[in-house]
């Protein structure tokens, strides 16, 4: 039981340590020519970018194992069984909730009016390399093959 608990905690720690949101350009964009257009941000709205659900599952499993282990430390006989079942249920719910929050990423929906007159919209992740943009801000829009790669302040 201790091996399972330790293994689960280590797996969860590795997931937390690696983070979920991308922190820059993908390898496929390195060295590619991009078109850059200038524009002005018209609006910005914070949005939720769905995760893949793995955090909820792992959190639930780790919480269930931890809750069961904690419950086994209470009393003996029937009381221990009841405490283990209750601990598993409560740990699973708490772990799933925590894992779900870890699995949620936030982004910014950005609408940009380009100097050419066109209006573009995209969703960018909010992380260390993608600064929050603001309405009225002058920006450069980086595009490759019709896909917006990035929007950055000028």
How do the helices and strands line up, and which of them pair or pack?
Blueprint lengths: L1 H17 L16 E15 L4 H19 L4 H26 L2 E10 L4 E7 L12 E7 L2 E7 L1
Antiparallel strand pairs: 1-2, 1-4, 2-3, 4-5
Question: Could you characterize the architecture of this molecule?
Answer:
The structure is a single chain. With 154 residues, the protein is of the alpha+beta class. The chain has 2 domains: 1-21 and 51-103, no CATH class; 32-50 and 105-154, RNA polymerase II/Efflux pump adaptor protein, barrel-sandwich hybrid domain (OB fold (Dihydrolipoamide Acetyltransferase, E2P)), CATH 2.40.50.100. The chain is built from 3 helices and 5 strands; from the N terminus they run H-E-H-H-E-E-E-E. The protein has helices spanning 2-18, 54-72, 77-102; strands at residues 35-49, 105-114, 119-125, 138-144, 147-153. The protein has a 5-stranded antiparallel β-sheet with strand order 3-2-1-4-5, with no helix packed on it. Helix 1 (2-18) packs antiparallel against helix 2 and helix 2 (54-72) packs antiparallel against helix 3. The radius of gyration is 23 Å and the shape is rod-shaped.
């Amino acid at each position: 039981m201790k091996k399972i608990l330790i293994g689960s905690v280590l797996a969860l720690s590795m997931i937390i340590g690696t983070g979920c949101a991308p922190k820059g350009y993908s390898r496929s964009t390195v060295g590619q020519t991009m078109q850059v257009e200038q524009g002005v941000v018209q609006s910005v709205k914070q949005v939720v970018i769905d995760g893949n659900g793995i955090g909820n599952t792992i959190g639930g499993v780790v919480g269930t194992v931890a809750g069961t282990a904690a419950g086994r430390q209470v009393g003996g006989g029937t009381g221990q069984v009841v405490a283990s079942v209750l601990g598993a249920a409560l740990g699973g719910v708490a772990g799933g909730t925590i894992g779900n929050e870890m699995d949620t990423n936030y982004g910014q929906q950005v609408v940009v009016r380009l100097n050419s007159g066109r209006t573009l919209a995209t969703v960018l992740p909010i992380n260390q390399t993608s600064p929050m943009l603001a309405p009225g801000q002058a920006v450069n829009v980086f595009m490759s093959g019709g896909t917006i790669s990035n929007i950055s302040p000028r």
